[in-house]
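#data-curation
PF: Archiving a pair of folding outputs for the training set. Convention for this channel: one message per protein, sequence first, structure tokens after, nothing in between. First:
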Amino acid sequence: MTTHQAHAVPSGTVPNATDAPNALNATDVPTPPLTSADVAVDLAPLAAVLSDRALVDDLDVIAAHSKDRAVFAPIGAPRALIRARNVSDVQETLRFAHEHRLPVIPQGALTGLSGGANGVDGALLLNVAGMDRIVDIDTVEQTATVEPGVLNRALKDALVEHGLSYPPDPGSVDISTLGGNVATNAGGLCCVKYGVTKDYVRRLTVVLADGSLTTVGRPTAKGVAGLDLASLFVGSEGTLGVVVEIVVELIPAIPDPLTGVALFDDIRDAARTITEFMSSGVTPSMLEILDGTSIACINDYGDFGLPEGAAAMLLVQSNGDGSLERATADLTLFERIAAGQGATEVTISDDPDDSEMFIAARRSVGHALEKYAMAHGGGELVDDVCLPRKSLAEFFTRMQAIADEHDVMLAVVGHAGDGNMHPNVLFDVQDPASVARANAAFEAIMATGLELGGTITGEHGVGVLKQRWLAQELDPVAQRLHLAIKREFDSRGILSPGKMLGALAE
């Protein structure tokens, strides 16, 4: 998940739930009714069975927890915030909500970019960020057992002394929780070689909508007893249950890589380099792309030594699975392919300082675009589509066409090795016409992803921002299966109503 700050549009200028074409409309999916339309449910009985002061009804605090980092996503008026400290808090909250048909919005660190954690009217915000213990690190089984509020970086740091690694490496590694990573099946910079979150989830403990507790997955390295229910929860965005404990698989510490950088005057040449390099049978440990706009914003943000004036930069790493000879061969091949595709400059380095500098530059792109946005109108809409690698050159051609047609500034970065692109639309939140153009550009990007054989989201999730587009990506039978699963796990529809599955046809 790329860490970009999505700026909220001031009241009165952002399209609301009925204005924005991609926003949730009131008719899309009904919010589960309260016990009475006129009398709010008394929450005192719930507060009495929760941890001390776990239930918060202060309106300012609730408002601060009512949205993630998405724009163009509606925000309702939740009833209360529950800061869960243990499994019992989660169970009691869901039992109460199920009984009284109260909507519940599971939350973590609120770093999401699709509105999945946004509040809805009358909802209980169930925040599990405070459940942040690393329960166990098992060096024999090479697993870690964690609560959902553990930060991705905290687990990585804790594993160093054991010589182990947890590979999923979203751009939000320092601020996103493992529970949130599970909810969106987060990927990141290293997933081209090491895979995404679901590839490392061995077992989950989950509280279902009625408050019942279950454990899904397997206790051992192998196991095929029953259906793979754990996979249903990975990427389900809090619509099926609330994860309260995660067992992840680990690998030996990842070897230090060699790093290569290639610069291009035409981003389509960079795309063709990606296609040819990934067709060669090589598996880099990282392959990232930044367009010229992103490079310029990074250079304005900090001194990372990036060259000026390039239309695109590819950042590649190979660790050769610990073999320096193999890593060198991989990057030598990259250098040859990039030069053959018109690269103006290719640099290969085995200096760890160079590697750290380039990675720091790549990770800074969110902050760099945030700085630019704040100085030029304050609007930044972070997008997330994933495409077949063979479609990347055409994708960049269409991104330029979209920028020209809608008169918006687009900055594109992405996990080039697996085709996961992040086009960022920058706009002026004080100008209604600029806001409208940005929203139209978003729609065009979504359509382009599907037209090129891709998907509407590679790692940020559907949330509320893309729920209408999910209905376009899934065929009618797939939609029916999704809804049948939702009904089985959450018969009263209280979990994340109107999110993710909200626009699927019955």
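PF: Second:
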Amino acid sequence: MPAAREAALARRSWSKVTDEAPTHDELLQLVAAAGRVADHSSLRPWRLIELRGDDRDRLGRAINKADGEKGVSSKPLRAPVLIAVVASYRKSHKVPRWEQEAVASGVAHVLSLLLDEAGWGVIWRTGHYTRAKAVAKAHGLKKNEELLGWLYVGGKPARSRPERRKAVDAGALLTRMP
């Protein structure tokens, strides 16, 4: 079976990961590969922000601020590395905003497959915090940017049994034009 199909079939979300993490240099190699997604006009309407250590505390403070609370949310501490996925929209008469967001989402998904294939546990977390002003400010987002979520990355914990995922009913989802 081709490697890409194997990676897609093996993919799963890891809500709990260990404190092990890929290095910055390892991430650079994977991002270079993920950046090869289909991209109309080669706009590269995305960027990624790597959060480690104290960066996660800063995000935790921003999350609490968005909720009107003080202190630091522990949510960003669930993984040693978070990768913020940012749609960075470009002016284009040919490529609409939705298509640019699809490119950014595609990069995130391919990166999650590559991280999983490299042995890392990954989950893509989203939610209302992605649109909170305090969170956008903490990430240094520009006016033409939106946060799409974070890839939480860490080591895969030992499991006593593999998780069984329900198979996709491709026949129900791939139809012919009426």
